Amino acid sequence: MNKQLLDKIKEALISVLPISLIVILINFTPLVNFSGREIIIFSISSFLLIIGIGLFNLGSDLAMTPIGEHIGQGLTKTKNLIVLLSVCFALGLLITIVEPDLSVLSHQVSKFIDSTLLILMVGFGVAVFLVLGVLKIIFKKQLASLLMFLYMLLFALASLVILNGNEKFLALAFDSGGVTTGPITVPFIMALGVGIATTIGGKRSSENSFGLIALCSIGPIIAVTIIGIYLKGDINCIIPDYKISDNIIVSFFNTFLSVTKEVTVALSLVVLFFFVINFIFLKLPKLKIKQIVFGVLFTYLGLIIFLTAVNIGFMPIGYKLGNELGNTYEFIIVLFGFIIGLVVVLAEPAVHVLIKQVEEITDGGVTKREVLLCLSIGVGISICLSMIRIIFDFSILYYLIPGYFISLGLSFFVPRMYTAIAFDSGGVASGPLTSSFILPMAIGTSMALYQYLPAFEAADKVLNNSYGIIAMVAMTPLITIQLLGFKSIMERRVREKIAMKRILHEDDDQIIEFM
């Protein structure tokens, strides 16, 4: 156990170190001026982030992933479709309502939309689409065709939001899809899909095990878009206070208590539900239950430490970083957005869960390094493009519509496995660090660029242009990972042509020698 924990902390160190070094090193340039106190708080938060991610990843291996697999396998074996779908709906609603990522976003936007309404609609969207994803696995339907239909429906609903005069609400709707698939949701839902797909079997069981995250990311967008259709009146934006508290000890203590409460509710409800399912259907041996209990404890501690660190150190530093960069040259803002995007995805806990499962399920056919590289490039491009949008002030739809059309178009030319992995990766890439570091950074940049406008107009532009960055982080990996699949096809065809030429050449030599 100690060796496993040490390995996970080493992985977390490699993940967090790049973003921490970039933030600290940029302080030694004329671009940004952090105080000594801010650097110390950020450094301590980075250390806590490493410990939190390490504990969480170990807990995910020991508890969250096995819980999902056992429920998926056990309920599928009962051959009772009603029970399976009912449990999946309840779990989808439950784990989403208590997802820390969604809580972070809802607190930041609570000034212009009721946070309870937002969380409930997002939870309902995930629950419905998790059931839809399970049905896809059971009846072995193609993911690409289903995604094509759902995104066409989504953009049709988006047009109704625009007609209602709430276009700026769309950025929040698409952000909701990104934050839903966070550190609690991802390992559980991915493992649930694996459990169901392997139990059902079939030659495409590995491919069918992916796609649940993709569908569970669409559900919240559609649900929140529906709010935008019926929402009347103007949506006002009040910028949250991102400053580091003068009394950091009191602030740390209050944040720690708040996070502990959220995580306790989140995990206790999921674990309690699991034990009820285990008592009725699964009846796992005591050794397995003991392992899961230990894993839950590691997950619990890891999440508390992680979320406390990002709230105390990363959120205010992200805001100030964006605000001070916003007062520099525009090309620096764009370049820094790309650089920070390359490394921020490395520190997302759920990303490591995804790439580990991808490598295991594909038997090394798709390596962790390949997926991580594509995710890094995709997120780098997404934040770079988002900074351009903040500078030039245009609608997020100019990115999202062509972006999703390209990603859906690629799905007809690449292996189905890559499409499923790509759409799952999009939801996973936009985790808690995106909502608590990148989003405040975008808001800070917007505030700097729009500071000369009247207060109401500036706040309105912040709402229009800062929100939507999570949606961009969730979209670009769909393209980069499918391009990886396209590359694999081309390489295979080249190898086949070379092999065919070699065979023909050998045959010609034999004919000449015979003659």
Secondary structure elements and their pairing?
Blueprint: H1 2-26, H2 36-77, H3 81-97, H4 100-109, H5 115-138, H6 143-163, H7 169-180, H8 185-200, H9 205-208, H10 212-230, H11 248-282, H12 286-325, H13 330-344, H14 349-361, H15 368-392, H16 397-410, H17 416-429, H18 432-449, H19 455-465, H20 469-514
Helix pairs in contact: 1-2, 2-8, 2-11, 2-12, 2-14, 3-5, 3-11, 4-5, 5-8, 5-10, 6-10, 7-10, 7-17, 7-20, 10-17, 11-12, 12-18, 13-15, 14-15, 14-17, 15-18, 15-20, 16-20, 17-20, 18-19
Shape annotation: globular
**Alpha-beta content class:** mainly alpha
Low-confidence stretches: none
Strand content: under 5%
| Helical coverage, percent range | over 70%
Number of helices: 20
What is the averaged pLDDT score?
Answer: 86
The main sheet comes to: none
Number of strands: 0
Cα-to-Cα separation, first versus last residue: 70 Å
Cα-based radius of gyration, to the nearest Å: 23 Å
The string of secondary-structure elements, in order, is: HHHHHHHHHHHHHHHHHHHH
